[in-house]
């Protein structure tokens, strides 16, 4: 069953007093397939990013970057971080996005989607 993934990107700006302000901005909604990553001892050696806990596969080829934040089906209390984005064989048919669950993070309610 397809799931809705909402992507956010953190941006930093400097104030007049040289203080860094970080903000979270909505980037896009994408439909695709979301699943838990499981691996045995054999698969761990070939896994690109060992911290990845989930995978999201989509046919939308778009600008997804490492460290973007993701929520699935609007659940702002379950935030994932993008660890790796793969366009297999550069065929532009699908993106395989490896995610890491961040248990202590939330997307604030004031961030528009």
How would you sum up this structure, described in words?
It is a single chain. The protein has 113 residues and is mostly beta strands. It has one domain (3-102): Beta Barrel (Thrombin, subunit H), CATH 2.40.10. The protein is 4% helix and 48% strand. It is built from one helix and six strands; from the N terminus they run E-E-H-E-E-E-E. It has one helix at residues 41-44; strands at 3-14, 20-36, 54-58, 69-72, 79-86, 95-102. The protein has a six-stranded antiparallel β-barrel with strand order 1-2-3-6-5-4. Strand 1 and strand 2 (20-36) form a beta hairpin. The radius of gyration is 15 Å and the shape is globular. The chain starts with a strand and ends in an 11-residue tail after the last strand.
**Helical stretch count?**
1
Backbone shape = globular
Structural class: mainly beta
As a percent range, the share of strand residues is over 45%
What labels describe this entry?
1 helix; Thrombin, subunit H; 48% strand; mainly beta; single chain; 113 residues
SSE blueprint and pairings:
Blueprint: E1 3-14, E2 20-36, H1 41-44, E3 54-58, E4 69-72, E5 79-86, E6 95-102
Antiparallel strand pairs: 1-2, 1-4, 2-3, 3-6, 4-5, 5-6
Task: Put the structure in a nutshell.
This protein is mainly beta.
């Amino acid at each position: 069953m397809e799931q809705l993934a909402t992507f956010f990107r953190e941006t930093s700006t400097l104030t007049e007093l040289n203080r860094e302000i970080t903000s979270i901005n909505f980037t896009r909604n994408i439909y695709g397939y979301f699943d838990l990553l499981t691996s045995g001892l054999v698969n761990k050696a070939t896994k690109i990013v060992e911290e990845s806990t989930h995978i999201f596969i989509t046919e939308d080829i778009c600008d997804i970057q490492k460290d973007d934040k993701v929520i699935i089906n609007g659940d702002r209390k379950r935030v994932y971080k993008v660890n790796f984005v793969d366009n297999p064989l550069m065929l532009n048919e699908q993106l395989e996005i490896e995610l890491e669950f961040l248990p202590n993070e939330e997307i604030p309610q004031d961030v528009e989607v």
